[in-house]
Design a protein that fits this description.
Mean pLDDT: 96
Distance between the termini: 27 Å
CATH class: Mainly Alpha
Number of domains: 1
CATH architecture: Orthogonal Bundle
Oligomer: single chain
Largest sheet: none
Number of helices: 9
Length: 185
């Protein structure tokens, strides 16, 4: 499966364009992390793109442990690699899947980071990611009332992949800035 096929598959299950942009953003950050760690960039990007494939068909607010499990089923049915299936399970703390691999730990920390970055962009006057700095994202990270859905404890697990918060935010922001046209920011 390549990126185009992954996006076609995502679009079969996810109709909300902002959700798709989130998945593309997670893919971009995962690709950058793979490059940093000397891992398979294409595989990691696909894991990021596909991780939320079940988000519109699972009532995760009332059954939080099911989000990721249904996604894993869909991915398995469509021939995704085991590492991608495991990443879909690992990104949601409520599935019960322990995170063992660097890929699983990375996607877990990356998922909420992209939300924090997007929220940080949306409060800027011009709402352009090019205008956002890592310093500003770090400041917003410390504001607990800002973007409450971006779980700071999960973002902080970046230390489990050997990155401090500042470096992790910088990688995330830079990789999202590089695809600003794809995510309309």
């Amino acid at each position: 499966m390549d990126k185009n096929k992954a996006l076609l598959l995502v679009r079969q299950y996810v109709k909300n364009e902002n959700s798709i942009k989130h998945m593309i953003a997670v893919g971009a950050v995962m690709r950058a992390l793979a490059e940093k760690f000397g891992e398979n960039k294409d595989l990691w990007e696909l894991a990021g793109i596909l991780h939320d494939i079940d988000m519109e068909i699972v009532d995760y607010r009332n059954n939080p442990g099911y989000h990721g499990k249904k996604g894993a089923e869909i991915l398995k049915e469509n021939g995704a690699k085991e590492e991608i299936i495991a990443a879909a399970l690992a990104h949601n703390k409520d599935t019960g899947k322990e995170r063992h691999t660097l890929l699983e730990k990375s996607i877990y920390a990356t998922d909420p980071l992209t939300g924090l970055i997007v929220a940080s962009v949306l409060v800027l006057p011009e709402k352009k990611i090019a205008d956002l700095t890592s310093k500003s994202v770090l400041k917003r990270y410390k504001e607990k009332a800002f973007a409450k859905g971006a779980d700071r404890d999960i973002i902080a697990t970046c230390n489990e992949i050997g990155l401090d918060l500042e470096e992790f935010i910088n990688i995330g922001l830079t990789s999202m800035q590089e695809i600003s046209d794809e995510i309309d920011l």
